[in-house]
Amino acid sequence: MTTRVYGRNFGDIATQNSCKDGDSMITLAPVTLEDHGVRLEPMERAHATALGAASSDGKLWELWFTSVPEPGGMDDYVSEALDGRAAGHMLPWVVRELSSGEIIGSTRYHDVLADIDRVEIGYTWYARRWQRSHVNSACKLLLLAHAFDELGCKVVGLRTDNFNFASQKAIAGIGAKKDGVLRHHRARRDGSVRDSVMFSILAVEWPDVRKHLEGRLARGSGA
């Protein structure tokens, strides 16, 4: 398993092994990313109980337009994420808040298109008490830095439900550009069909997005 710990200036990277195999195509491997009081740890089956407890803070499964399961469904949620990792189209993490030591949510790369150096960031959720805190900015900074600086991605996509207005605001707030809306795009948990609002960040935009996120964290702003 690869481990990287990023310093606050993203200049010095302590590395054990490498995610790159020398090809121009991105290659994914589980990796631990840490900074700004959060640690992204590769998801494992043993995390299901802690994830269930995190989702209970705010009863996140009651938000019909999100993908967060009830605590009793967290084993299947984790299994699906790990199946995606094994198939090569997902790379899931749990989010650990370091001052408390608690797992407070989850995020992942998904819809990985290695042949065009594209990943998407999604399936992101946090326990309610950590929403609108520094956590989302910290996680996005870690994920984007890994995608652009380490994997060599050309673009990182983000998407959300057309009724998830808070998520749309948060994605725009990190500096992503809205690409458009995919109508009648995918099924929700309740069987209804959602439109997906699509955003992206290009590699050439990443330096400005990084400065924006670092400034937000320095000011103690949430997202």
Which keywords apply here?
Aminopeptidase, ten-stranded mixed sheet, alpha+beta, single chain, 28% helix, 5 helices, 223 residues, 34% strand
What does this structure look like?
With 223 residues, the chain is α+β, with helices and mostly antiparallel strands. It has one domain (2-218): Aminopeptidase. 28% of the residues lie in helices and 34% in strands. The protein has five helices and ten strands; from the N terminus they run ββββααβββαβαββα. Strands 2-1-3-4-5-6-7-8-10-9 form a ten-stranded mixed beta sheet, sandwiched between helices. β5 and β6 form a beta hairpin. The two termini are 30 Å apart. Residues 7-22 have low confidence and may be disordered.
Summarize the structure.
The chain is α+β, with helices and mostly antiparallel strands. It has 5 helices and 10 strands, in the order ββββααβββαβαββα. The protein has a single domain (2-218), classed as Aminopeptidase, CATH 3.40.630.
Annotate the secondary structure layout.
Elements (H helix, E strand, L loop, with lengths): L1 E5 L6 E4 L14 E5 L2 E5 L5 H9 L17 H14 L2 E8 L4 E12 L4 E9 L8 H17 L3 E7 L3 H9 L3 E11 L5 E10 L3 H13 L5
Parallel strand pairs: 1-3, 7-8
Antiparallel strand pairs: 1-2, 3-4, 4-5, 5-6, 6-7, 8-10, 9-10
